[in-house]
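Hi R.,

As promised on Friday, here is the backbone we talked about, encoded as structure tokens. Could you run it through your design pipeline when you get a chance and send me back a sequence?
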């Protein structure tokens, strides 16, 4: 991956870590006690921001790899799906397992953007909230094994073999 892309991804990952650090007290609290309506709204905003940051990374990788970003109404899903398969000049960025996890965050993001916060249900969010830290770690691992050039001719890596 180019130094420029590496810097851009590093910045996004840093922002995602800061997001989770900011919400750490609430994440610890809701691991023990169900959240109230205000806390649910705050956690929903965090999940929305989290997926936006993930998507920013995926968009940057696509653009730096010379790929055209999808333009259809389902472009968010198409972008995510494309990152689980090799591109013309890059290996697969995410594993199939991470793809499935991120699909859940994308689905939540879509619901959040089209709902009122009083409609949110903890039972629908709890697994996503509990898994956000592990999902970030998995994403960090995936993007760290991208090849150092944009030609995609790196040796087989975990990101490229799934």
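Update: got your reply. Pasting your designed sequence below so it's all in one thread:
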């Amino acid at each position: 991956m180019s130094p420029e892309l590496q810097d851009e991804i590093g910045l996004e990952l840093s922002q995602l870590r800061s997001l989770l650090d900011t919400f750490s007290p609430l994440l610890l609290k809701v691991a023990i006690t169900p959240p109230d309506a205000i806390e649910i709204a705050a956690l929903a905003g965090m999940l929305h921001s989290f997926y936006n940051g993930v998507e920013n990374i995926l968009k940057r990788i696509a653009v730096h790899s010379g790929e055209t970003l999808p333009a259809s109404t389902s472009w968010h899903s198409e972008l995510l799906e494309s990152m689980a398969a090799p591109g013309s000049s890059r290996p697969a960025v995410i594993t199939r397992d991470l793809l499935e996890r991120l699909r859940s965050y994308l689905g939540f993001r879509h619901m959040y953007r089209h709902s009122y916060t009083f409609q949110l249900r903890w039972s629908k969010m709890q697994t996503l909230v509990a898994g956000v830290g592990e999902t970030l770690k998995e994403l960090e691992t995936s993007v760290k094994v991208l090849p150092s050039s944009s030609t995609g001719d790196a040796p087989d890596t975990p990101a490229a073999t799934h």
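One thing I noticed while checking it: The longest helix spans residues 3-30.

Thanks again,
M.
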